[in-house]
Automatic annotation (TrEMBL):
Its main location: secreted. This is Carbonic anhydrase. The keyword Secreted applies. It comes from Crassostrea virginica. GO terms for molecular function: carbonate dehydratase activity; zinc ion binding. Belongs to the alpha-carbonic anhydrase family. Residues 38-354 form the Alpha-carbonic anhydrase domain. The keyword Metal-binding applies. It catalyses: hydrogencarbonate + H(+) = CO2 + H2O. Residues 1-16 form the signal peptide. The gene is LOC111107957.
Length: 366
């Protein structure tokens, strides 16, 4: 009932936000000289919307440039890249976390430098520190992922953000050419909140009773029939579902920071890890792109996992109620940048019709 009552105000709130943006546009109030004061939104009708980001402030000019993300991954055009497996340090170690609604989305983050990603393709021996996990959803329930695969979208997309260990923090790394790696994971939603239950099988085993997700429906895309036999073992992200159900309600309302030095974080009583959203199968696509939010810096090595995960319906519904800077629920305008019309080279680390390397089993997942 609470969910229903909160959603009935979405349409009117979204309309008010749209009118507000159009008024500002009419009076030339959208441009910000001060980059730190600039604001963006996902409202497609306002002057702060995705198509206008490069015009809001001079610091965001990359948003209108080349090599922008997200993209549609055309699997038929991907290039096989042999011998590339992801390596992590301390992946099964859970670290203290916190969450904050920054007015655009709630982010789970950590201040530790314990968990790291290594063996990133074409990044040599560089080590990347785990920084945060956040999600993207859409205005249309079935089209929430930012990336698409052969034109197919998922209800959500999780982003696990890492920054290069050679830099003191992510703020510095964001401006460096080798600064960031982001792992993108497609997210399915359970039919009901009880579906995301504990799996009984041991790790690294397959069984015909398990839920497998067909990665590319041959009946829809005849040109991809050559890999129609490729399936994914679908992981129920139980721990992440629980965290989302609990903390997205706590940070549902946007609270502006007191000043530039103060951020209103809520510290988690639980610990977090990238394994909370990583799929079982570590097969991935890779390309060089950009941040999908301003300033749209073109320094992101994207690793988009081939296989999805699944969260509970309750977690998904709770996320849709989180409010943006105008106190409008995220579902009103969605939280995804449209696919950019870039034909960037995309690589893959797997052969068709094969299973990839599986995520190591972490006891705390139970």
């Amino acid at each position: 009932m609470l969910f229903y009552l909160l959603l009935v105000s979405v349409a009117s709130s979204a309309m008010a936000t749209s009118l507000y943006s159009r008024d500002r546009q009419a009076f030339g109030l959208c441009y910000e000289e001060d980059c730190q004061s600039a604001h963006f939104s996902y409202n497609p009708f306002g002057c702060h919307g995705p198509k206008e980001w490069q015009l809001v402030t001079s610091c965001w000019h990359d948003c209108g440039g080349r090599r922008q993300s997200p993209i549609d991954i055309r699997t038929r055009e991907t290039i096989y890249m042999p011998g590339t497996l992801l390596h992590f340090e301390n992946l099964c170690t859970r670290v203290p976390g916190k969450i904050r609604n920054n007015g655009h989305s709630p982010h789970f983050s950590t201040d530790t430098r314990v968990i790291a990603l290594t063996n990133v393709p074409h990044r040599g021996s560089d080590k990347y520190i785990f920084e945060e996990i956040h999600f993207h959803i859409g205005k249309m329930e079935g089209k929430g992922s930012e990336h698409s695969i052969d034109g197919e979208f998922y209800p959500m997309e999780a982003h696990v953000v890492f920054f290069n260990d050679k830099y003191e923090n992510i703020s510095i790394a964001k401006s460096k050419q080798d600064g960031l790696v982001v792992i993108g994971i497609m997210v399915e939603v359970s039919d009901n909140a009880d579906q995301a239950v504990k799996e009984s099988l041991e790790p690294n085993t397959y069984d015909t009773d398990l839920d497998f997700e067909k990665t590319c429906p041959c009946v829809k895309r005849s040109d991809n029939c050559y890999w129609k036999y490729c399936f994914c073992r679908l992981k129920n992200a139980r721990i992440m579902s629980t965290l989302m159900e609990k903390y997205f309600y706590i940070v549902r309302e946007y609270v502006p920071p007191q000043n530039n030095e103060t951020r209103d974080f809520v510290h988690l009583t639980e610990f977090i890890s990238p394994v909370d959203v990583l799929p079982y199968d570590w097969s991935f696509y890779m390309y060089d792109g950009s941040l999908t939010t301003p300033p749209c810096s073109r320094n992101v090595r994207w690793i988009v996992m081939r296989c999805p995960i699944r969260i509970s319906a309750e977690a998904f519904n709770m996320y849709k109620l989180v409010q943006d800077v105008h106190n409008v629920p995220l579902v009103a305008n969605g939280l995804r940048r449209p696919v950019q019309e870039n034909r960037l080279p995309v690589f893959r680390n797997f052969h068709w019709k094969t299973f990839g390397e599986e995520t190591p089993y972490c006891p705390d997942e139970d």
